[in-house]
User: Fold Methyltransferase domain-containing protein from Clostridium bovifaecis.
Amino acid sequence: MSIKSIKKKDRAGELIQKNKRIFKCPVCCGKMFMNDFGSLTCNSKHSFDLSRKGYLNLLTAGNTPVYSKELFEARHLVCESGFYDPLIVELSKIINEYKKLRNNEEISILDAGCGEGSHINGILKKVTENQNKTYVGVDISKDSINIAARNNADIIWCVADLARLPFQNKSFDVALNILSPANYSEFNRILNDKGIIIKVVPGSNYLKELREIIYTDKDVSDYSNNKVINYFEQKLDVEEIQNINYKFHVSNEFLPHFIRMTPLTWEKSTERLNDIYEKNISSITVDLTLIIGTKKR
Ligand SMILES: C[S@@+](CC[C@H](N)C(=O)[O-])C[C@H]1O[C@@H](n2cnc3c(N)ncnc32)[C@H](O)[C@@H]1O
Assistant:
């Protein structure tokens, strides 16, 4: 093991030990703590090793990955290019305001379905007064968490199912759910009574330049996120809905990363994908809806 990975693992172990109160044993629901061998353990001796990269795998059953490692690597490059920066700025602003409302008390933030981790990582860099904050990123894909843990040792990274979150009741103040599936009963359970949830969903023009080429047979502006918003409203009180809409300049050399980062292009013929290059797309639209909610009162 290299010195760098020992340091990373130690740093992650310290962070997890400091925040052990948030964890719940995925097997027996008991309280957890870091043992002398660097594993997260409960009193019934269910034990979960910290990987060399510094993340925990808290899945109790196997799962077949839906997204490939290649997709997450491409998504990472796209995020690093600044494609989602306006979204990160907005999310950081909302969290900063929320923290002020809570008189700068200690808060914990969960990104459920965090993918390769760039969003919560970007928020950590942008949110002011980073003391008194715990950041946790969870995704069911080990490949995505591997990339996430490579890039930030100040965030607790867990491979886990967001439908069976390995956290105690009311252990988070902010739950983020960005372009990922939701499980509102779990989100309600882990959120404290004053907590907020921010769900980010695509708007009708999201990636429209790519979709127009891929789906020649349908009107791409037909998509509406009303159903998702209505379902959210049934489960939580909606405080605010915001839209973010902008165009991001892309060069032809960078286009392959956009094609690889989205499931939209899966199972599409090479011919259709070649069309994307030939159309000389110079910009791609980001159209997102942020739904901010609280527990039902
Ligand atoms: C479209 S990606 C979005 C990832 C990231 N939030 C982003 O915006 O780049 C959807 C993510 O949800 C994750 N996911 C799907 N089902 C999940 C589950 N049951 N528990 C945790 N993560 C899940 C996938 O592995 C994937 O990383």
